[in-house]
Specification:
single chain, alpha+beta, Aspartate Aminotransferase, domain 1, 3 helices, 6 strands, globular
């Protein structure tokens, strides 16, 4: 999928979202909480997170939060940790495309990520998780 398709999907299917764009990165904020995004689309590496090698032409990573039960069912093998960057150095290949993974920095806070999601993966899995997440905050 393309960034514009995901952007359109989020804005059309989840009311009360506001879009903030910072240097081509997109932050979808819920009006109830404008401090923590509902979802983000990151288009480049930065000083805090370069593990997905997003500086490749046209690459991006979709990030969003899921509930604790979902993250535990998806990633049973992960150690239980509350630290930031808890999963960044576990040998996970965060450059892998079209694969749902714990977020390298915020995974311990139940955030997941996916580099270059395909339409099939988005429609089969991502839409469901986004809807679950939205129901919890709305």
């Amino acid at each position: 999928m393309e960034i514009e398709e995901i952007k359109s999907y989020l804005l059309q299917n989840f009311d009360k979202l506001q879009l903030a764009e910072v240097e081509n990165d997109l932050f979808f904020m819920h009006k109830k909480n404008d401090k923590v995004p509902f979802a983000t689309i990151i288009t480049k590496d930065n000083e805090y997170d370069a593990v997905s090698n997003l500086n490749r032409e046209g690459f991006f990573r979709l990030n969003f939060c899921v509930d604790k039960d979902t993250i535990e069912s998806l990633f049973k093998e992960l150690p239980k940790s509350k630290k930031l960057e808890a999963y960044m150095h576990l040998g996970i290949d965060f450059t892998k495309e079209d694969t749902l993974m714990p977020h390298p920095t915020y995974g311990s806070m139940n955030w997941v990520c996916i580099v270059q999601p395909s339409r099939k993966t988005f429609e089969t899995f991502i839409e469901k998780y986004l809807k679950q997440s939205y129901q919890k905050i709305n």
